[in-house]
Amino acid sequence: MVETNDRRLPVGIQSFEKIRKEGYLYVDKTDIIWQLVNRNKTYNYLSRPRRFGKSVLVDTLEAYFTGKKELFEGLKIMQMEKEWVKRPVIRLDMSRAGAEPETLRSYLNNVFRQYEKEYSLVPNPTDSLADRFNAIIVGSYEQTGQQVAILIDEYDSPLQHSWKTPHHEACTSIYREVFAILKADDKYEKFVFITGITKFTQISLFSVLNNLSNISFEPEYAAICGITKVEVLRDFQPEISKLAEYEGWTFDEAVAQLTAYYDGYHFSRRNMVDVFNPFSLINALADSDLKNYWASSGATSLLPKFVDDLDIRLKDFDHSALLSTIIETSDVTGGGAELFLYQSGYLTIKGYINGTYFLGIPNLEVKQALNEIVLPTLSMRKNHDLQSTQAFLNYYLSVGDLPEAMKSLKALIADVPYSNKKLASMDMEERYRLIMSTIFNAIGCRVEVEKMIATGRIDMVVETTNFVYVLELKLSNNGGIDAATEQIRAKQYAEPFNADKRKVIALAIELDDKGKGLINWKEV
Q1: Orientation angle between helical segments 101-118 and 129-144, nearest 10 degrees
Q2: Rounded CA gap, 495 and 198, in Å?
């Protein structure tokens, strides 16, 4: 049995001080942090998806600027930092500010009151929030003799959650008022660091701070949040070994599974290092289990606000593109669904050519989460009506029980292509491919639609842990099951998978040409 009892993984912990003092495992990013702070650019903005370690990064910066050298013993920064100057730090966590002007003002009022108490500042009753923010910046500088570090975490949270509500403009006005001070007080500021998910450009953070450096796409900061494959193999070997033992995998197979589920993020076209979702990876290794941690933590709550017709458009988003001017500089409210999906972590950079970014879904966890969201809408059923049948389909496919698997599949697709008017623009076979691939993705299978091989194009390849299913679909009026069987044999669709150690099963499937569902099937 692999022993990992003496190792503590920081599940859900965002305090750098707690991680270091209580002996939790810390993936050392302090060399990148030191380079960021010491490159002589005052205003910096970093966009990363939620649950990607931004708050731990901000907390680490606060510990650095307040001179807590003891927390960094044994880390890379100790070879780089020689002075350890203690500076005043003003930190705002905008995720705590709600989504209405009243809660936003209340949060800022409470935080400013704490700093006023710390620096013995007494605001006038008529002072605005901007006046008080200015007084805190200037007062902390004058009292300590050191320039101030200002850290604004999750700056966009009130703006995201108030978007498309009557409160959005009022929240935006507060931002314009308060944060315009940052540029005016630049001589008192050593370092300003702002994190967020989405970019709202019509606020003073972006319109006033015209010298704001967006480090989100810069190659040297591609891995400042998240965990790289090198870091996984270096820091988590005992946990990977434990997962492998539980699942009956080799160490390399466990790494491959973790990679497929949680890796695949790229944040710079000049540094395409693979980055794991840290929240999901840490949880999976702590539990010794592969689950959909990210989506279940609330990551999908904002999708309906920014993306229309996700159920129909999902397959297109997985192979989409954006101009560099859009992805790097545009406001999320006018940049289209692809921009929101990229910024929030549902899509990632797959490639770049001549000013065009190519985007796709990063990994199986995200793909499954998105398909689970769209399946009830696409199948025109309530979610609870699907879950038992989906679970049985997953079980029967995983053990190779074809009759029962096909019975479950038939129940799930029923007459969906016929009755769903949203699918009317597609030809009938395309409709079936969409609904079936969504079903298989939603239960966690690995799915490839229209897979190209040397002899032709396979309609669908569906992979489970123990089986590879090769599916050829034919409508009743296009030869049905006989034509599908003949095509599988003539084009030898199963041949490319012979080297796979899993059992390969080729299935001919006949579908009703009027959209009434699965008619017949046959193992070839």
Answers
A1: 20
A2: 45
- In 3D space, the residue among 305, 319, 343, 354 whose CA is nearest the CA of residue 217 turns out to be 343
Q: Count CB-CB contacts under 10 A for residue 510.
A: 23
Query: Exposed, middle or buried: residue 169 (CB in 10 Å: 0-12, 13-18, 19+)?
Result: exposed
As a whole number of angstroms, the distance between CA 30 and CA 17 comes to 14
**Hey, CA dihedral for 412, 413, 418, 420, is it positive or negative?**
positive
CA distance 336 to 340: 7
| CA–CA dist 432, 351 (Å, integer) | 30
Q: What angle do CA 406, 410, 412 make, to 5 degrees?
A: 115
Contact predicate 458/451, CB 8 Å? yes
d(CA 235, CA 229): 10
Tell me the pLDDT tens digit for each residue of 382-437. Answer: 766 788 999 999 999 999 999 999 999 999 998 677 777 778 778 899 989 999 99
CB 410 within 8 A of CB 330: no
3-state helix, strand, coil in the chain (%, to 5): 50, 15, 35
pLDDT of 517 over the 80 cut: yes
What does DSSP say about strands 227-228 and 275-276: parallel, antiparallel, or unpaired? antiparallel
Please, are residues 429 and 475 in contact by the beta-carbon 8 Å criterion?
Answer: yes
Integer Cα distance of 219 and 232 in angstroms: 20
* Structure-model confidence comparison of residues 517 and 302, the more confident one: 517
Please count the other Cβ atoms lying within 10 Å of the Cβ belonging to residue 27.
19
**Residue 515 backbone zone (phi > 0: left; psi -120 to 50: alpha; other: beta):** left
pLDDT digits (tens, 9 = 90+) for 182-222: 989 999 999 999 999 998 887 767 766 667 899 999 999 99
Structure tokens at 192: 């300003």
CA 245 → CA 250, 251, 253, 261, 402, distances in Å?
Answer: 8, 8, 11, 18, 29
Residue 298 CB coordination number (10 Å) = 10
Q: What angle do CA 98, 102, 107 make, to 5 degrees?
A: 55
Among 68-72, 163-167, 302-306, 374-378, the range of highest mean pLDDT: 68-72
